[in-house]
């Protein structure tokens, strides 16, 4: 099923998918595909970076539980808080010193929902599950990032690209682009 185009609906779908992976995770110390990360770190990353990003544009997101203490509760809190934000205030302007000016819903969609989507792959792999990511959205993200590849690499947020055949599934090509080895499985070690 294709993901919706509306930012609030897309967030609900992507956050819901990530939430299902959170609920399926039984070993929070399991290694994740990002070198040095565990399943807990994947959740910690998402609940850790986004509130300060929003604050940089003058938007406060209520603090929730720590992923260190309770990754399930931390994710649930953030998913609900972000969904309320995009539904209730998504039409508002949002200006971030490094990310530019957008409608708030579009900023959430572009910077956060896309990140949740990609990190769903990490959490699925850490738990030994198939990610089941939407091919069309993966293709949109990949095509949107290719023209700004050097900027993304220079940001330090992405590892070196992992070579993936041009005819590989689009999700594999996206993961290779952001520095993941599409062949990574729990117990095989990590790549940046």
Short description:
The protein has helices at residues 7-24, 39-56, 71-89, 104-126, 135-145, 149-154, 170-177, and strands at residues 93-96, 100-103. It is mainly alpha-helical and 192 residues long. The chain has a two-stranded antiparallel ribbon with strand order 1-2.
What does this structure look like?
54% of the residues lie in helices and 4% in strands. By secondary structure, it is mainly α. The chain has a domain at 13-78 and 116-133. It has a two-stranded antiparallel ribbon. The longest helix has 23 residues, at 104-126. The protein is globular and about 40 Å long. The two termini are 30 Å apart.
Entry keywords:
192 residues; mainly alpha; globular
Topology of this protein?
Blueprint: H1 7-24, H2 39-56, H3 71-89, E1 93-96, E2 100-103, H4 104-126, H5 135-145, H6 149-154, H7 170-177
Antiparallel strand pairs: 1-2
End-to-end Cα distance: 30 Å
The biggest sheet, with number of strands, parallel, antiparallel or mixed sense and barrel status, is:
2 strands, antiparallel
Number of helices: 7
Number of strands: 2
List the secondary-structure elements in sequence, H or E: HHHEEHHHH
**C-alpha Rg (nearest Å):** 16 Å
Shape: globular
Strand order of the largest sheet: 1-2
State the helicity in percent bands: 40-55%
Residue windows where pLDDT falls under 50 for at least 5 positions:
none
The structural class is mainly alpha
């Amino acid at each position: 099923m294709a993901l919706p185009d509306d930012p609030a609906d897309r967030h609900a779908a992507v956050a819901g998918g990530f939430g299902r992976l959170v609920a399926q995770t039984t070993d929070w110390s399991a290694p994740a595909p990002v070198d040095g990360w565990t399943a807990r770190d994947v959740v910690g990353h998402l609940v850790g970076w986004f509130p300060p990003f929003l604050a940089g544009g003058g938007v406060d997101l209520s603090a929730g539980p720590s992923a260190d203490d309770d990754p399930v509760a931390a994710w649930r809190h953030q998913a609900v808080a972000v969904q309320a934000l995009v539904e209730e205030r998504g039409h508002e302007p949002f200006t971030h010193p490094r990310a530019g000016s957008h409608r708030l819903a579009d900023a959430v969609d572009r910077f956060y929902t896309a990140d949740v989507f990609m990190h769903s792959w990490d959490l699925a792999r850490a738990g030994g599950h198939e990610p089941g990511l939407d091919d069309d959205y993966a293709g949109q993200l990949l095509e949107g990032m290719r023209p700004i590849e050097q900027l993304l690499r220079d940001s330090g947020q992405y590892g070196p690209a992992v070579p993936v055949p041009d005819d590989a599934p689009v999700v594999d090509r996206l993961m290779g682009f952001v520095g993941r080895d599409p062949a990574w499985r729990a117990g095989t070690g990590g790549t940046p």
